[in-house]
Amino acid sequence: MTEKACRECHLISQGSTCPDCKITSLSDDFTGLVIILDLKDSAVANAMKVKKKGRYALRVR
Ligand SMILES: [Zn+2]
To answer: Which of 1, 6, 35, 51 has a CB 3.0–4.6 Å from the CB of 18, allowing a cystine?
Structure first.
């Protein structure tokens, strides 16, 4: 199954709907992969405004 990244929150999922935003605006054209494990101490999570743990694309086209 191909993985797609949400254009809104950049969350990577395998379905056609973002499990977080419930939108279907997903793209399979993304670069970079960020795995957020700890939200509190993650500067990356802060910079990306990530609210949940998970795998995120750095850039979604
Ligand atoms: Zn999303």
So the answer is: 6
- The total domain count for the chain is 1
- In tens, the pLDDT along 37-54 reads 999 888 889 888 888 999
Spatial contact of 17 and 7, defined as CB atoms under 8 Å apart: no
Distance 52 CA to ligand 1 centre (A): 11
Residue 31: give the domain boundaries.
4-60
Q: How far is the CA of 55 from the centre of ligand 1 (A)?
A: 11
Total-model pTM? 0.86
Q: How many CB atoms lie within 10 A of CB 47?
A: 9
Rounded to the nearest whole angstrom, what is the distance from the C-alpha of residue 31 to the centroid of ligand 1?
Answer: 16
Taking the centre of ligand 1 as the mean of its atom positions, its distance from the CA of residue 40, in whole angstroms, is: 20
